[in-house]
Structures are given as C-alpha cells and as structure tokens.
Amino acid sequence: MTDDRDANTLSWTKVLFVSLPYLALYIASIILTGMTDAEPARATELWKLFMPFVALVSVVGGWRFSGETNKEKAIYVGKQVIYWGAVLIVINLLFMGDTPHFLNAESQGFVVAYILGLSALLSGIYIDWKMSVFGAFLIISTLGIAFLDDNAVLISVAGVAIAGIAVTLMLRRRGKAA
C-alpha cells in the first residue's frame, strides 16, 4: 500500500515538475494577451522578449526525445538553435526599416504573437505535444484579442481551463491504462 502511495505521489510530482514551465508560459501569455489589448506598444516589446523563453521551454521539453548519444543531442540542440534563431530573425525583420510604419502598435503585437504561436505549434508537432497545445492556445488567444477585443483575457483564461481539463483527463486515462 505504501509503495502505491509513494509511486502515485512521485508520478504527480514528476507531472507537476514537467508541466511547470508550460504553466509559466500559459500565465505569461495570458498577461501578454491582456497587455496587447490594453498597452499595445509595451506589449509588442514584451512579446519579443517572451520568445526566447518559449524557445527554451521547447528545447528542454523535447530533450528526452533528442536521442541517446551526445552526437544526437548536439544535432538536436543545433536544429533547435537554427529553428528558433530563424523565428527571432523574422520577428526582428518585421521591425526594421519602414515596416513598423505600416502596422500600428496593436497590429505589431498580433503579428509577433501569431508568429510565436505558429512557431510553438510547429515545434510541438515535431518534438513535444505540450508545445503544440501551447502554440494553439496562443493563436486562439490572439484571435480573441483581434475579434473579441474586450473579452480576450476571459477567452485566454477559459482556454487554460480547457487545456488543464484535457491534460487531467489524459493523465487519468494513462493512469487507468497502467
């Protein structure tokens, strides 16, 4: 009985530890989503600063799938650096030259959030499904800002709740199968 209880506690601790970086991304994206609606100029800069954290969580989240040997792990890290570096370059290219004059501050925030959401979604498809869920959440949240304006934060919170319920159901199903 004690072994089952210890194993159950260990598994929940492990799930919490693995999920904590993703939870931080969700919370930060909700805050940034609300800021994009309320303070678009400041939010655009914060979205650009948020991108390296998304990249870091993506790289760490996919580490267990990167291979067994040091060479495989080095190739994985190299590919991730190229991938996320390209995303950062594209985002920075959007703010060079005359491009910022064509977009207002709120539109700039949308564009950065959409690119970041798409990048996270694609990264998750190839590496870790949790990053895909986050990317989809980010895209949907940004759509909430664009189309539902005043309810964007509410939609983001609802999205987190739905994602939490989905993850909980998946964990329960996996626990019953084991």
UniProtKB/TrEMBL annotation:
Q: Transmembrane stretches, by residue range?
A: 12-34, 46-65, 77-97, 109-127, 132-148, 154-171
Keyword vocabulary terms for this entry: Membrane, Transmembrane, Transmembrane helix
- Is the keyword Transmembrane helix assigned to this protein? yes
Name the chain's protein: Uncharacterized protein
Say which species the protein is native to.
Halochromatium glycolicum
List the lineage, top down: Bacteria, Pseudomonadati, Pseudomonadota, Gammaproteobacteria, Chromatiales
